[in-house]
Specification:
This is Limiting CO2-inducible protein B/C beta carbonyic anhydrase domain-containing protein. This protein has 248 residues and is of the alpha/beta class. Helices cover 35% and strands 21% of the residues. Strands 1, 2, 3, 4, 5, 8, 9 and 10 form an 8-stranded mixed sheet that branches. It has a two-stranded antiparallel sheet with strand order 6-7. 41% of the residues are buried.
């Protein structure tokens, strides 16, 4: 299947999606051409789901960057918190930059079914993101108790509480899983921005790319539907919107 045919399937759900490989290529082009930085001067941190598919479909070119430092747990929420953000902030080269890629993930099969992918070696599809689907099922069945966050299943319980706060919005949506993923993105984005504001970085720039990470079948690869691509100049405090660089 040609790249344009794959994108046509993914863009039925996410019109601005590009391949994850292309998103990395455009990022590296930007830092080289506009910031005069080499990839090895950039510390990559990601806050994406710990699902193994995200390791399998991780773009190879990210190996040119430092890292990645892993911030995310189930469905990409930055569970390493302020301590994690501070840790990799202290690892970045003095004249370099921090690049944080974050967001929830969702599956879309080659037939356009959302919430599933066909994984290597399996004879049938499986859920993606399984944690989001599980939390949504509990929401739909009124099984989430407000404030119930346990040590035994802390990450899942946190996702459940995020969805519970937007119960009416999610359950009234045409596609509740799609809407639940939007809600989780908003929670991740808010938390990342809060963590960034409370962290001291030993570098010139912080670059944020917030997105829905879209996984697909083994022979389809992964895609990025960006919602934020922003450069923060730590010397001047100025922010620059870079979303046009990811325009389809």
């Amino acid at each position: 299947m040609l790249k344009k045919e794959k994108l046509k399937i993914i863009r039925q759900w996410y019109p601005n999606a590009i391949t994850t490989i292309d998103s990395v290529n455009r990022f590296i082009d930007f830092i080289e051409e506009h910031l005069d930085l080499e990839p090895e001067q950039v510390m990559l941190a990601d806050s994406v789901c710990s699902d193994d598919v995200n390791s399998i479909q991780y773009p190879a070119r990210t190996k040119e960057l430092l890292g990645p430092f892993k911030m995310g747990g189930l469905d990409g929420f930055p569970f390493t918190g302020l301590t994690g953000m501070g840790a990799f902030a202290s690892h970045v080269p003095d004249d370099g930059a921090v690049f944080i890629y974050y967001g929830p993930h969702i599956g879309i099969t080659k037939t356009g079914t959302i919430g599933e992918i066909h994984r290597f070696g399996q004879h049938k599809n499986s859920g993606c993101c399984g944690a989001a689907k599980g939390a949504l099922a509990k929401l739909m069945n009124d099984q989430i108790v407000e404030g119930n966050v346990t040590d035994l299943d802390y990450q899942m319980n946190t996702l459940e509480q995020i969805l519970l706060k937007q119960k009416e919005r999610i359950l009234s949506a045409k596609t509740p899983l799609f809407e639940a993923t939007e809600v989780i993105y908003e929670a991740i984005d808010a938390r990342i921005c809060e963590l960034v504001s409370k962290t001291t970085y030993n570098c010139k720039y912080v670059i944020l790319m917030g997105a829905v990470l879209i996984n697909s079948d083994t022979d389809m690869g992964s895609y990025t539907s960006a919602k934020r691509f922003e450069l923060i100049n730590l010397e001047s405090g100025q922010k620059r919107d870079l979303m046009e660089l990811l325009t389809v």
